[in-house]
Amino acid sequence: MSSMVFRRFGEEVAGFVGKSVLVETKDAKVYSGRLAAVDERLNLVLDGVTGAGEGVYKLVVNGDMVREIKLVEKPFDLKGLAERLGRVFPGLVTERDDIGVLMVMEKVKVTEKGVEGSGIAADKVRSIFDEYIRETKKA
Q1: CB-based contact 128:136 (threshold 8 Å)
Q2: Domains located in the chain, CATH noted
C-alpha cells in the first residue's frame, strides 16, 4: 500500500483524539470514554472511562487487543464551515482537511476549537464561526 493511504488512516484516527469513543476489544470488552491519545500501533489512552470497573478513570488499551474504535459524537463539519466562510470571503478560504484547519486570507486560522487571529477579518470570521456553532448545536 502507498504511504499516502497509511498517512490518511493515521490522520483519520488522530481526528478521534479528544472525542467520545466506544472501544471494543478482541475479548469482547467494551469501554467508553474520551480518547486522550493514540499511537501508530493503536495503543489507546481513554479518559473518563466506563466499563473498566469501579474507580477506574483512565485506561490504557494495548493496540493488539483493539477490535473496533467507534466515534460516538458527530464530527465537526469543517467543509460546511468552509462553504459558509467562502460566501463572505470568496476565493480566500483554504481548507486543510489533513490537519483540520481552515485558513482565511492566509492570516486567520480556524479549527473546530475556534478562531485564531486579530483584526476586522478575524472578528468577522469569529462571528460567522459562532453563528455556525450555534446552528449546528440546535440541529
Answers
A1: no
A2: 3-71 (2.30.30.100), 78-138 (3.30.310.60)
Q: In tens digits, what is the pLDDT along the chain, a chain of 139 residues?
A: 566 666 778 878 888 888 899 999 999 999 999 999 999 899 999 999 998 888 899 999 999 999 999 999 887 888 999 999 999 999 999 998 777 899 999 999 999 889 999 999 999 999 999 999 998 887 6
Q: For the whole model, what pTM was predicted?
A: 0.64
Angle made by CA atoms 26, 29, 35, in degrees to the nearest 5: 95
The cell for 99 is 490537519
| Rg of the chain over all Cα atoms, to the nearest angstrom | 18
